[in-house]
Automatic annotation (TrEMBL):
Subcellular location: Mitochondrion matrix
Alphabetical UniProt keywords: Mitochondrion, Transit peptide
Positions of the CAF17 C-terminal domain: 335-437
Name of this chain's protein: CAF17 C-terminal domain-containing protein
GO biological process terms on file: iron-sulfur cluster assembly; protein maturation
Source organism per UniProt: Kazachstania africana (strain ATCC 22294 / BCRC 22015 / CBS 2517 / CECT 1963 / NBRC 1671 / NRRL Y-8276)
Keyword Glycoprotein applies: no
Annotated Polar residues bias: 364-380
Gene encoding the protein: KAFR0A03210
Amino acid sequence: MIRTNNIAFKTVRRYTSSKPDGILRYAKLTEKSYLKIHGPDTIKFLNGLVTSKLLPNFTKKNLTTVTEKSRAINLPFSLHDSNVGIYNDVGINDEFYISRFGQYTGFLNGRGKLITDSIIYPLFDKAPYPEFYLEFNKNIVHKMHTFLQHHKLLSKFKLNTEKLQTWDVSIGFPTVEEHDENPWVGNILNPMMSIQNPEDALSFINNVKTALFDGYEKNILGIYVERRTDPLIRQNGSMPLSLRLVTDDTIKSISSIYNEKTFPFKFDMKEVEPSFFRKQRLTYGITDGTQDFKSESLLPLELNFDKWHNAVSENKGCYVGQELTARTFSTGILRKRVVPVTLPNFKLLESNNDYFEIQAKNPIQGSDPNLAQSPFGQSKNSRKRPAGALVAHEGDVGLALLRTEYFQTAFGNNNKFYIHLNDTKTVEVHPQKPFWYSE
């Protein structure tokens, strides 16, 4: 057990097996860019733009009237006068917590469509005001800079472009039995969700940096723990933990700075292509930037933001694009969701940038009671309504925006789906049951 600043980082015990006890995979990402935002109004400003809840306010609107109920949690510290990290509503025992790890979130346009998802990284400096790095894909960072400046008005903060390096990292212990507790639950997930003061939050992430990258703590500028797969890690003792690291440009590889001394065994370490991690994410049904969807084409709930930890809030109050999101939460009506799919003959897809319509062999007719039926009946030549659309794919794994009325037959293998390219080319689409789905 290693101790730093009175917070423990537990090591894992060694298992006897022919497999390596530890596996580390990493990839350098070249398509990410960063904006640094800092100043006294930073958190209030971001809270009015992102889908996540960054302030301890509760606002519940009655969508049938103009009334609303509001309240605020009184914290023993200020979120505005110093660099304290990110507030999260629900942690261990359903209590709030403060974190210095990155937060997955989204930015919407005025119509409630997702401009882009993003990761907000709290800086580790003891600054007089909040400081964050905002992560975007390079193809949209200029648009987001303009978007933020457009909404600035009288808010007091500065916005700068930063040149940083980005890494996807996966660390796992394959010899741990699947039914055992995953070592990352007690070492990372539970501790980070139980800290309620900024000092301990900073001490904990510094402890993690030392345990994993001893001697290179100053080069690590941001850490995001992939929280969207929390349920899987809590169910599977050997599932790797996925991290996103932000470093300065002096770091040439993760294997050269990784601290194996934390663990009582050797690691199998290898650099892989970014597609390795993208394919892994798509398998779980999660996205990472505008490489996985077209900007302003989807709703955040269609991308399952309501299934991810603090990715979207239904009670934070007003923010850009929240009206449609709040209405969907209130009515419970969502006609499409993104699900993982496999594509056995994916090589027939010549483009990776288009949304391909997905048809069902057995289409469901008139299943939506909210849609009015034509009094003239259905034309024999009328075009079939698609069952969904292929949003993204990496090789034979992809994401499909599937109509929810098809879920039961799709996940029960009682229907077949395909993309019709032309008279001679058809791509099979096999929807996979998402880990969050329950009938």
